[in-house]
């Protein structure tokens, strides 16, 4: 180990070749201090609404970060020992983990993160936000814990204060479609209504054969005061909630379907499937057809109300059935599958792809679709923007591959700019910073290869970091 | 914007690292002045046969270039405003666009092409061919229009004269299988019969459930004087036309099928499906089986007559149904899909893959198949050559990825060399030049990493630029 | 051609950029002299058991190396002329090729290997092992043949002596599940029982609709003295042989299935399918279900006996039916197909993925799965290690892409380290050397980009070259 204090090299994540690096540094400098536009993420709205202090280093940095938990689990740690809470005593695992023990496990596992983006994000946070000067390790864990805890305890470390410190101009949360948006109402009352925005996520209401579907419907009915007993009521309630979200500042919807199609059904067929689903008699084929139909309906409503439609298919959720049974869903065990966009989106894009009132942003966790399907689609349909590489792909080399794979067909203007897609709030500045560095490196290479002039690269870098994400989520013309 | 005049850097598209660049420059210099061998393209034969002047800058550079049109459309331009003509007044769009207006839209959209190959090709053309010294923009559009128009109006700018100026040794057109080849006959009469070659494209005759199939058959019957009422007559007429193409100098056939198989049917089954199709009673499954059967038959005929069989599956054509209805097919709305070669080609390659009379060139728009399927196939079957990266993949980074993905398994000798695949005639020298630069950069990296000696790289560069495309399309032994 | 003697540049296959190269050289130096751990390969056990001299240059270097044979075949050589022996006189090809003629064909074809890993491996072997100072060519073929033959004839060139010379600490062979392991018994008697290990490969016994299935069962019954007439006996015999392999030092099983699933069947269903298969009445669907079931059973047995389970699906074997008919299987005509892991492995990993007694190593020849499926799986399941890029992917650029695609999600510790997967014994040191160079180059780039510190890179390099392959194949906790 090095004896020198742990510092951050100013050129980290920029290209190694000196000539290209020099260009990259100049380009990066043009974006470094720009505000953060965070239009897709998973920070709980309550953190901002309630503005309470964070509890401890484990609770802040380890437990809510899937990337950390899954890497430590992959080398044998039980996720309950990393602070993930089981569903109940029946799950047969201890209910609570000592935060200092969780932190020690993380610090001892620090070498596991070599070569991962977590390494970059965490070292940025630890050094820049928490003033740490030693690498995490078993030996330094306790001292680091105390040091981080002291920063957390500072009243200036409350969520709302961090919005300023992190230069976050706007941030979106993700909210279930049946949300009463109370948190956002409270933020609006406190003057933060245009800075923290809700996002309408109706997945659970569109999967009519999923176990929780009925419960979701009940919540939807309650929050809207609408009878969802039939298909018309269901559509009406969805429309009501979209309007409520829009009034609360929402700029987008979010659709995480497994995405097998967007073919609309005749209304009477949709109504019949809906009725069957209400009776609990729907078949898998009917549920799939209905999901495709509803994605088309969501696009139609977006063309009406101007909410930007985010689509990200292609993940098999809760892969480890034992983890799902003991800890519930969304524990970092979602695994990508090969995804098809060209045929699946043809009905939706033929109907709305040139509609000036409509915009959709397509995300993927299957990078083979970047050059094959997504760039060709984004490069011809005016309604389509290509979302940032995210989830497993928001990493230095993956983000570079994204630009290399899509730019030659879709250019820059058809991409949406970076989204951080995270619930690890303190990592947000580091995530945007890393994306800016990688984009600077890519642009610098184009300049070094005389495929772009420097003035163009500088302007494009600001587009990618700031202007494009604002533009992608603003109301279509 | 830079105030200095717009010039082309001699090292553009070469690697940025100084040591590798220096090697790349030396390698590129060995190929720079070589003749252009353009064995696959879409320039209309009439341009050469009639040798008329081009009309205007929009008609020459914008309207026929899908890459330009689709990028401008992706940011909201209507394609009718870019000079694409609708099918008729019923389509509900204006029939004609003013060419100067089209040109202005293109110039104003110039920043959209940053990072795309269009940027490289167009700047090469504008600077080298048209002497332009300012970047296209709204402000410079009119001056550029006039300057380009003046060059176009020069009698030295006729298509045949450009063949010399562009150092085009040989160029292939693409012609429907029912063509009477009148254009090529006229070229032969004028001594250009070995310089401009037809290519036999029978797709429309092999898709027995496509709307235009019967019309195509009628044309085939007429041009051959053959009764195509039954399967035997159909095969005979195809054979007749292949012979006519061959006599007119054709070196290849071109098969753009969606490519789901190459399994031959028993003759009686094929005849029965053909008869059903003639009655308009064919099923989709029958049509698919027949298409696979006919691809096998085309290979068998190639083994007989020596025409090289080009295969390029994997595109969903006319994705935007509204565009197809208003403007017809082939408007730049074709989107790739995931493609399978290994199983699909097994029957064809088991039958002809080692036949010394047969050669096939495999293209793709799904780059995941480069290392997984195409390089392993080309690296073992003597009849297989791996076609150049094209369509969405004829771009700097994509061409580099192609070499990186296939060379380690298939080497260089099993690749076909660059094809430009374009109808944008004036872009042909720039397209070949870009490919030579990228190949030089790739070879230079191998030399810099001591994986190849410089003398080998120099010889290989000439192979890729000149010898291999000639060899790939010459008659098999 | 260069007149200077043929030598190996010390920096070959390291990055070209001088700064990164300097780092790479330092990192590579830390691994260069480490022992070779070769836990997956295809060198016949007889070579070590009998320790006989090799016959001639063709027999040693050309005939057993698929990469050489397939490249020469791809440019028109008949494989019988490359020394591959046909199945019998009925095959209609000459039975024997003169080794000097085979060698001449290889030397004349030397330029074909430009840009391939074969080029690197062979030049390393020829220069370092055989002292060759001229490039292979038609002109030098005979002299090289004599020079290589002289080295082969040296008694110090026996297989066991080469184990020392090549610094091979441990090497695994691949053995059919019905093997009596006589070769390994003999090696154990000679004190090499912990240095040359068997690997249990049961593929042929699990494919109940394959032609040779019954013959394999007979051999299994004979070697175990077990009645395999019913499913219980079959399972019992497999268990017996696993125990015998384990006792003989085996650390792993190897599963090359086409891999369509791992869903266990109820015992009675499995028994019924087994019985049907014994009667020769099994359907393709039953055989597929049974294969998935048995992969699950193999995992269950691995959890019991600690043998590490290697899985490598995704290849269509014996693609050229004519070659298979004349020369038999495994002639270099296996072609990859797109492969799915996420859904296929869910049953197996939900059952054993967190079982501390179980470990599986996943290989692929479909590199699209690296970032999409394999890294996410290896990055969360403690039982999963991600195998090295191999077969068509054990090449400089492909190995680099592997690290770039998987490290950001799975880190280094979830990968297995390099395996050479070869029957070309003399190439083993060169193969491991190339992998170490590529990993050094990748790590050097991370250091140059300040994404990793040099001390971490040095430690990681030793992990990848030596510690991880040992650890991946040791008995699970």
UniProtKB/TrEMBL annotation, chains A, B, C:
Gene Ontology MF, one: glucuronate isomerase activity
UniProt enzyme class: isomerase
BP GO annotations: D-galacturonate catabolic process; D-glucuronate catabolic process
Keyword annotations from UniProtKB, A to Z: Isomerase
Classification of source organism: Bacteria, Bacillati, Actinomycetota, Actinomycetes, Micrococcales
Pathway participation: Carbohydrate metabolism; pentose and glucuronate interconversion
NCBIfam families with a match to the protein in the record: PRK02925.1
E.C. numbers: 5.3.1.12
Protein name per UniProt: Uronate isomerase
Keyword Protein transport: no
Reaction(s) this enzyme catalyzes, per UniProt: D-glucuronate = D-fructuronate
Entry's family note: Belongs to the metallo-dependent hydrolases superfamily. Uronate isomerase family.
Pfam families: UxaC
Source domain of life: Bacteria
Segments of this protein annotated with the region Disordered: 1-20
């Amino acid at each position: 180990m090095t004896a020198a204090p742990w510092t951050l090299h100013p050129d980290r994540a920029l290209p190694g070749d000196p000539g290209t690096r020099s260009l990259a540094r100049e380009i990066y400098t043009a974006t470094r201090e720009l505000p953060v536009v965070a239009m897709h993420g998973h920070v709980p709205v309550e953190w901002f609404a309630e503005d309470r202090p964070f509890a401890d280093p484990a609770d802040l940095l380890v437990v809510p970060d899937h990337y950390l938990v899954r890497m430590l689990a992959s080398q044998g740690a039980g996720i309950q020992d990393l602070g993930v809470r089981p569903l109940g005593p029946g799950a047969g695992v201890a209910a609570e983990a000592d935060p200092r023990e969780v932190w020690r496990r993380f610090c001892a596992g620090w070498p596991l993160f070599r070569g991962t983006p977590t390494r970059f994000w965490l070292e940025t946070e630890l050094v820049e936000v928490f003033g740490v000067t030693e690498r995490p390790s078993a030996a330094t864990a306790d001292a680091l814990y105390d040091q981080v805890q002291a920063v957390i305890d500072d009243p200036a470390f409350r969520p709302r204060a961090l919005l300023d410190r992190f230069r976050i101009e706007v941030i979106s949360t993700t909210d279930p479609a049946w949300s009463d948006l109370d948190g956002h109402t409270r933020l609006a009352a406190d003057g933060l209504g245009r800075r923290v925005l809700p996002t309408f996520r109706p997945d659970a209401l569109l999967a009519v054969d999923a176990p929780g579907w009925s419960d979701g419907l009940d919540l939807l009915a309650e929050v809207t005061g609408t009878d969802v007993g039939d298909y018309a009521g269901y559509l009406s309630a969805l429309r009501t909630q979209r309007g409520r979200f829009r009034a609360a500042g929402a700029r987008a919807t979010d659709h995480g379907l497994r995405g097998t199609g967007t073919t609309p059904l005749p209304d009477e067929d949709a109504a019949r499937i809906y009725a069957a689903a209400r009776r609990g008699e729907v078949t898998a084929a009917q549920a799939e057809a209905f999901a495709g139909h509803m994605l088309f309906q969501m696009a139609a409503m977006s063309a009406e109300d101007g909410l930007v439609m985010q689509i990200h298919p292609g993940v098999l959720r809760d892969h480890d059935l034992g983890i799902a049974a003991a800890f519930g869903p969304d524990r970092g065990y979602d695994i990508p599958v090969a995804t098809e966009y060209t045929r699946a989106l043809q009905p939706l894009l033929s109907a709305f792809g040139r509609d000036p009132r409509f915009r959709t942003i397509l995300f993927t966790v299957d990078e083979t679709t970047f050059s094959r399907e997504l760039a060709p689609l984004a490069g011809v349909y005016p309604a389509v923007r290509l979302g940032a590489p995210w989830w497993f792909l928001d990493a230095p080399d993956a983000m570079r591959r994204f630009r290399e794979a899509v730019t030659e067909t879709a250019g820059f203007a058809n991409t949406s700019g970076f989204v951080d897609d995270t619930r690890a709030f303190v990592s947000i500045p580091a995530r945007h910073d890393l994306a800016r560095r990688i984009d600077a490196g890519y642009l610098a290479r184009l300049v070094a290869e005389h495929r772009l002039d420097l003035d163009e690269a500088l302007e494009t870098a600001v587009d990618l970091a700031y202007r494009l994400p604002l533009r992608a989520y603003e109301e279509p013309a």
